[in-house]
Structures are given as structure tokens and as C-alpha cells.
Amino acid sequence: MKRYSTGFTLIELVVVIIILGVLAVTAAPKFINLQDDARAATHQGFTGALSSSIKLAHATWEVRKSSADPASVGNGGYLDYNGVRIGFWGVSGYPECENGCTLNGGIANAGGCNGGIPKLLDDSVTFLDTYNTAAFPPAGGDCVFTDKENENLKIRYSAVNGKVKACADATSCTALLSSSTPGNF
């Protein structure tokens, strides 16, 4: 009667470990890039949402501008928009800020880039948790929203012409920020 051994030999175990190691080395980069891919998809989603919100706010201004509260400083007025008092620049009709700013097409205040513009979005809290906000150039003009974890994900918005454009790498971000003229990007 022959006796069969149960279990694996050392060579079989080493071969299995090597195969698992090779699989892990080839699969790990795919899983690591999933986080970057998710962040890029979120960035595209926010860009589209912001662009749509800007267009909808502009259309609201065009329909309701005759009933807007006039601006105390600048050209335009204020409308209640989704529960927020938004200032619209009268020359272009695009949203510029939250209540109480100078409506001149040159966003340069806290009520603009990190106030009224994000509040046009349904999920402004998540947007502001995801992006740093700043006027561009620093003296004012457009808004630039920069992802807090990836500096190469930016969105630029201009109240001069309602343009919203995004970048997702160093080269396209350099191009996006190359003009300091509001609306010229």
C-alpha cells in the first residue's frame, strides 16, 4: 500500500508566491491610478456643473433683470437665486458675486470667487472643500479654482463673458493662466 503525502512541497509554495508577486506588481498600478482617475472625473463633473449653473444664472438674469435690485456700486443688480442674493454684472449679465460687491466685471472680492460663484452649484460645500479659490490675476478679473490635492486641476471662470474652462495637466494649466486679461482664455 502506497502512502500519499498531503500538502505542498516547498517548490510549489515558492512558485505560487512568485506568481502572486507578479500579479500584484502588474495590478497595483491600476488600483493606485483609480484615485487619480476618480479625482479627474470629479473635476470634470464640477466643471460641467459650474458651466451649466453659470448659463442657467445668466438666463435667469436675462428674464428677471428688470425686477432686479439695483447695484449700489457698479453696473448691474442683484437677484435671489436658489436662496442666495447673487450680483450680476449688467454689461454681460453673468453672475459676479454674492450680495454687496462692486459689479464691474472684475471679480476681486471674497463675495465672488469663494462666495457667490460656488453658491450657484447645488453642492457648493463639497466644491469649496475640494477647491481653493482665488481671483486671477490677484487684482481681480476672473476666478480660478484649484484642486486642493492636485494643483494641475484648475477651473477658470469669467464674469466678463461667462466662459468656464478647465485644465488637467501642467501644460494646459499654464495655457489657461497665460492671459491676465479677464475673459481671455
From TrEMBL:
SUPFAM superfamilies: Pili subunits. The keyword Transmembrane applies. The chain crosses the membrane at residues 7-28. InterPro entries: N_methyl_site (IPR012902), Pilin-like (IPR045584). Keywords: Membrane, Transmembrane, Transmembrane helix. Signal peptide: none annotated. It holds the Pfam family N_methyl. NCBIfam families: IV_pilin_GFxxxE. This is Type II secretion system protein.
